[in-house]
Amino acid sequence: MRTYDCSDPGERRLGLTAAAGAAASGSLVVLPTDTVYGIGADAFNAGAVAALLAAKGRGRDMPVPVLVGSWNTIDGLVHAVPPVARSLIEAFWPGGLSLVVQHASSLAWDLGDSRGTVMVRMPLHPVALDLLRSVGPMAVSSANRSGQPPATSAEQAAEQLGESVEIYLDGGPAPIGVASTVLDVTGDVPRVLRQGAVPLDEVRRVAGEVEVVG
Q: Where's the YrdC-like domain (predicted)?
């Protein structure tokens, strides 16, 4: 377990290298995002994803979301990007909107009991984007034990996750401190599964009619 202060340029470079190496070897990393801190693993390493779920104390019934480092990465992860999803990506990525889409059946990953879907987001945080562009798509969930508040700092993440994580990237306090808004675009009418960082009226401005679940 090691923490890198990403406010220092030299330590940030070392931390990103260490985090990329840890992910490549199947270990877990904590990274800052614009919403809350995340615990991440290589999305295509099933053992690492299982370790992530175990670190959180979370079951396979709550599959792990995926973070990407560019707009076009999603094209390689899904059968087809619905037009409404493309409009939402252009409006809100990078940023605090997660999209639930149908993933390509050919993908060799196991994110939990996802039933053919995956939740994808591109975060608006330079450290997260640098890591994602180095590693590729990462399975990332909020950096907390299941049932506990999401961590908004590296210190809070370490208090909850401890030695289960190899590398902690400290990017300072999370700018937003609220989890992303989650929008399911797999059906005819987009469904808001969780209200969060992107306000509902802004989602409606781009998506038009939406259904709010719960």
A: 13-198
